[in-house]
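If it is no trouble, can you show me the amino acids of a protein and the tokens describing how it folds?
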Amino acid sequence: MRALILALALLAAGKIWFQDSIYRAGTEEALVAAYRALAADACAKSASVMPPAPNQDKAVDWSSEAEPHVAVGNPAIPVRVWQLEHEQWNARFRQPYLILSVERAKLSCAYDLLSQTAEITRS
């Protein structure tokens, strides 16, 4: 009887994990499809005011060569998790970002979906 209950519990946990994975993948795909063009434009505008790297031979095409993924919170904002009253706490830990990464140029652009701003960082 214990084995049956354990098997049912494992099946239930597997079902929940599978549904969560499908939901997250679908949500990420929808957000990337909806905001990729806006993010690429905002990143290109931010890159135009940023001085080029010394080893960068050509400009980055954010719309085609950038690899997108969705993230919750921006780790570049210097706020700690216990600083709940900080004005940028939501931006650091709760707001959705579309991250466009270009490995060739070692650049990444974090596009804030709520404020529609972009910030480029070199890695």
